UniProtKB/TrEMBL annotation:
UspA domain segment(s): 14-159
Similarity section: Belongs to the universal stress protein A family.
InterPro entries, sorted: Rossmann-like_a/b/a_fold (IPR014729), Universal_stress_UspA (IPR006015), USP_A (IPR051688), UspA (IPR006016)
Designated name of the protein: Universal stress protein
Any one Pfam family match given in the protein's UniProt record, by short name: Usp
Length: 160
């Protein structure tokens, strides 16, 4: 940790992207950040990504309307928004020196996290690990693994 402090003690602010889905694994990552002594004015962008139904189902299969998918998307957005707000409250309460922002993105979690990390200029991405086994990880696809493999900055995967 002292190496991180020295590197960011100059004019450059440290920028952390925290990806959360509201799971117990994400909450572990949130608490991990909240309890760390980061340099003053460290920026943390909390991101929650939800899968957009309206993009997946652009046709009306079996009579399901576009309005139904729009409502599902809206509810997913509101759920993700609540997740980011709760995470921000924890970080602000436990570590008021952090500059905390939130963002909700509709799309594929793997690509959205990577794209937002680049846009934000993240020095570090922090994600929780769901702890899937090798077979489950292969079949389901691990967001944390994909982020770790393709990110252009450091990635920390927090385990429960």
């Amino acid at each position: 940790m002292s190496q991180m402090r020295n590197e960011f003690s100059g004019k450059k602010r440290m920028k952390i992207l925290l990806a959360t889905d509201g799971s117990k694994y994400s909450k572990t990552a949130i608490n991990e950040i909240a309890n760390r002594p980061f340099p003053p004015k460290t920026e943390v962008c909390i991101v929650s990504v939800y899968e957009r139904m309206s993009l997946i189902n652009s046709l009306e299969p079996m009579g399901v309307s576009h309005e139904y998918y729009a409502k599902v998307d809206h509810n997913a957005f509101k759920g993700a928004e609540k997740i980011t707000e709760n995470a921000a409250k924890i970080l602000r309460d436990k570590n008021p020196a952090l500059i905390v922002t939130t963002m909700v993105i509709g799309g594929s979690p793997k690509s959205a996290i990577l794209k937002e990390a680049e846009t934000f200029g993240a020095d570090l991405i922090i994600v929780g690990s769901h702890g899937h086994g090798v077979i489950e990880g292969f079949l389901l696809g691990s967001v944390s693994q994909a982020v770790a493999l393709h990110a252009k900055c450091s990635v920390e995967i927090v385990r429960k």
